[in-house]
Amino acid sequence: MGLLVDGKWQKDSALIDEKEGRFIRKESQFRNWVTADGSAGPTGEGGFKAEPNRYHLYVSYACPWANRTLIMRQLKGLEELISVSVVNPYRDENGWTFAPGDEVDQDPVLDADYLHQIYTYVEPDYSGRVTVPVLYDLKQNKIVNNESSEIMRMLNSAFDEVGADQGDYYPPELSDEIDALNDEIYDKINNGVYKTGFSTKQAVYDEEVTKLFEALDQLDKRLEDKRFLLGDQLTEADWRLFVTLIRFDSVYHGHFKCNLKRIVDYKNLWRYTRELYNYRGVAETINFDHIKEHYYATHKNINPTGIVPKGPELDFSLA
Ligand SMILES: N[C@@H](CCC(=O)N[C@@H](CS)C(=O)NCC(=O)O)C(=O)O
């Protein structure tokens, strides 16, 4: 996997701590916020007022972090207000690309070949990873933010006065509970599948896969008497969990060796995953071809042939 160093693309870089055999995720770097009045948000600079047709979202259908922002865009009815470009699912030594493909978009800003060109266009000496999602300001030609958890929060509330649909997925009275669940789910599940799949030492794999399934077992119990994580109200925490569950049986189970069980084997998690998948507009944000192609073809270190498996056959219908 490549990255930018002082604005120059380097084709190779390591995300694994060689000695420990552990996967380490790096912090996102653009941390400004779109707000209703353009004032600064919790981090970064002000000047990013919520306006229709001003912001653009770069995503990959493969990526669970990008998926959560696409879901929030859908839930809040922002499809006409915030445009989207989907990158090619195959990430080669040049990182994410706009190489033509099924359901791949062209870049509206620079007609770029690579996503890293967007990063260096706004910051010519940028050093760091070139990740999706990216929320881009078409008016000022700046990257607002490339941290999905923050982009989700902006989409949840900043556009409410300019045409977003009703609905608050991070209501103040539940925020402490949501934050606590998010921390747990991020560490053990969202990032847990990556820590399991990218481990290069048996002991690290054993430890991570055990933590992952303990957490899934607990959530399955939690959902025994609850429709959603916090009861009847759907919150951000559900969508953050969902993006990992929906990829689980297709890629994490095989490709990342998270194979003690599948999600279809869990009574409550399976019911829950299907319900969220069928929730309004959400299925449109899921593209299993992109998901499978990305993981199996891109991570040659764990799947050297790049063969993308045909299965599994999954039925998400509610019947
Ligand atoms: N913390 C970031 C993580 C985003 C992320 O890691 N995206 C992956 C795709 S799933 C990516 O673009 N990786 C490219 C790289 O690390 O070079 C977020 O949640 O937005």
Give your account of this protein's structure.
By secondary structure, this protein is of the alpha+beta class. It has 2 domains: 160 residues, Glutaredoxin (3-Layer(aba) Sandwich); 108 residues, Glutathione S-transferase Yfyf (Class Pi), Chain A, domain 2. Helix content is 35%, strand content 9%. The chain has 9 helices and 8 strands. The strands form 3 sheets. A 4-stranded mixed sheet has the order 6-5-7-8, sandwiched between helices. Helix 1 packs parallel to helix 3. The structure holds glutathione.
Summarize the helices and strands and which ones pair or pack.
Blueprint: E1 3-5, E2 8-10, E3 16-17, E4 22-23, E5 55-59, H1 64-75, E6 82-86, H2 115-122, E7 134-137, E8 142-145, H3 148-157, H4 175-190, H5 192-197, H6 202-222, H7 236-252, H8 267-277, H9 288-298
Parallel strand pairs: 5-6
Antiparallel strand pairs: 1-2, 3-4, 5-7, 7-8
Helix pairs in contact: 1-3, 1-7, 4-6, 4-7, 7-8
The protein binds glutathione (GSH).
